[in-house]
Design goal:
single chain, about 270 residues, mainly alpha, MetI-like fold, 11 helices, about 75% helix, about 0% strand
Length: about 270
């Protein structure tokens, strides 16, 4: 007779951790199909809240603005963060390198309230001195998000740049490549996974930000986290559950496609020739 082994401590902790992370999401998805507006009452299966979601112009406008700000912020953060990472990793004898590195990583440990308040004061002073920005809105949120997202990108890219074999770049320049061409032909393809990771991280941080956007936004610019937070304070709306379910579904599909593509690439690389 085969005796079943009791699950070990590691497996038990793994199961508990997975339940702690994903059980609330499952509950949210289930209640997005609840016919009742009350979260504590199950009144039957219904998809009417998805229809109400797509009829809510304020919510859809906030989603569109958040996606645009996140895209612009992530793209600019990758450019600035990559430049900073390149300077830190390649010019180790530069004067002020330690100061520059500290200033880049400061947003990582700075409370968001302090960052948002300092940026708000900056924009107010700029409006008084040079007349810009006239109104705080999408541009100010974009600048603010780029500011703290660049720090995360710089950390990710610098970690990858430190692993790049400098002899390959030196060989390319010995063969006649200019430093700029060497960067785009040799270095850039090597650090491309880090750039993609940094862009996705910056996009997620920008899309999820509430505190900093609340400081630097104006009456005409409302992001998705701001709308969700204001509506949750008055009670959890089933439309928010429906929106969260759609976001979870989209992220899950993207994650599965990325996993499948990486798995195929790994199999192709290990396949004997």
């Amino acid at each position: 007779m085969v005796k079943l082994k009791a699950p070990g401590f590691s497996k038990s902790m793994l199961v508990l951790g997975m339940l702690f992370l994903y059980l609330p999401m499952v509950v949210l998805i289930v209640y997005s199909f609840n016919a009742s507006r009350l979260v504590s009452v199950w009144a039957g299966f219904s998809t009417k809240w998805y229809g109400a979601l797509f009829a809510n112009e304020q919510l859809l406008s906030a989603v569109w603005m958040s996606l645009r700000i996140a895209f612009y912020s992530a793209s600019m953060a990758v450019c600035l963060g990559t430049l900073c990472a390149f300077v830190i990793t390649r010019f180790k004898k530069m004067r002020g390198r330690t100061l520059l590195s500290s200033m880049i990583t400061a947003p990582l440990v700075m409370p968001e309230v302090i960052t948002g308040l300092s940026l708000l004061l900056l924009f107010v002073q700029m409006a008084q001195l040079i007349g810009w920005p006239v109104d705080r809105g999408m541009a100010t949120i974009w600048i603010a998000h780029t500011t703290f997202c660049s720090a995360y990108v710089a950390v990710v890219v610098s970690a990858r740049l430190q692993e790049v074999d400098l002899s390959i770049e030196e060989a390319a320049m010995d063969l006649g490549c200019t430093p700029l061409k060497t960067f785009f032909v040799i270095t850039l393809p090597v650090i491309a996974p880090a750039l993609v990771s940094g862009w996705l991280l910056a996009f997620t941080l920008s899309l999820d930000d509430l505190v900093i956007a609340s400081f630097v936004s104006g009456p005409g610019a409302t992001t998705l986290p701001m709308v969700v937070f204001s509506s949750v304070r008055m009670g959890v709306s089933p439309e928010i559950n429906a929106l969260a379910t759609i976001i979870i579904a989209v992220v899950s599909v993207i994650a599965f496609i990325a996993w499948f593509w990486m798995r195929r690439a790994e199999k192709r690389r290990l396949r004997p020739r």
